[in-house]
Amino acid sequence: MNPDGNTLSKQYAAALTEYLADPESEIALNKAYEIGRDAINVGMGVLDMVTLYHDALCHVIAQQPAAMHQGQIAAAATFFAENLSSFEMQLRGYRENNVLLQEGNEMLRQAKTHAEDAHRELQQTQAQLVHAAKMASLGELVAGIAHELNNPLTFVIANRATVSKLIGELAASPNFPPDLGNNLTKVQDRLDRMRTGFGRITDIVLNLRTFSRLDEGEFKLIRVNQSLDSVLMLLEHRLAGRISIVKQYCADDMLFCMPGIFNQVVMNLLTNAIDAIDGEGAISLSTSRGETAFQIDVADTGAGIPPAVLSRIFEPFFTTKPVGAGTGLGLAIAHSIVQAHKGAITVASEAGRGTTFTVSIPYAAFPLSTPEA
What we know:
two-stranded antiparallel sheet, single chain, rod-shaped, Heat Shock Protein 90, five-stranded mixed sheet
């Protein structure tokens, strides 16, 4: 059982008296350490020990002749120092435990960081696998569509031209009935409109081929403006007359990149901008050349991205869209593609004002060649 404060006070006075009677006694000095340890056990602190020492010293010194006071006070100081050594040992133990605790916390922090990095890498790998499968499927689909459309389209265009030529010859014939002239004019007008429609289909097929280029995994010199316009044409049906496009192509029309996945970045950013606009709005697509990088900005007039989720938008599978409306891979894929170009993608957003994504692709030394048509 640990002694209480009153018992310690009596023990302290007795031990101090014993020590002052024989300052060379190790037994008496050890009692000072034990009293300090007992004081710790009952919850006393250093200030309590000072009070205990002061009271005991006054009591003991008062019983001694004045001539002995100076020497006894010096010996009492040694006794008190031994009392405090218990507290010093405790403090040293606290410090050692604290060091161990800090080391343990650091190990836990590092383990947590490693686990988070591993989880992030796993998510990125999974996203890349999904992206690769998606791109492979899209490549097959685009190739099939282009092939299936191209053959009949070529046949129809050629026959339309033949019909148009024959109608022109028929109208010029002296045997052609004059009363059918209006009907012939209408037919020719319809053929001209058909030519416009066929031309648009041809452009769509060409833009599909320009956009996909999924077999092009190598860096090539491309015409940026053409690539951007091809993506815009593919998304034109989603604008639905409610979203206007402002193009500001200020940079040189050349960029050294991987064409297929470069188009994928632009497609994903534009799709994200369209989804962000509820009702009418505008999207700005601009290019510029900095000192070290080619820059593309995609800005929308949507609702903006909440600050709480802004730091997570590039995480694979993270989405704020309703279930079934998004996979959460668009921006993550765009981010990984830009990283593959050793570039950077940043975002600035303001609630109610819209969002701007900036893609920076550093210049690379490329061979002197003509950009792809």
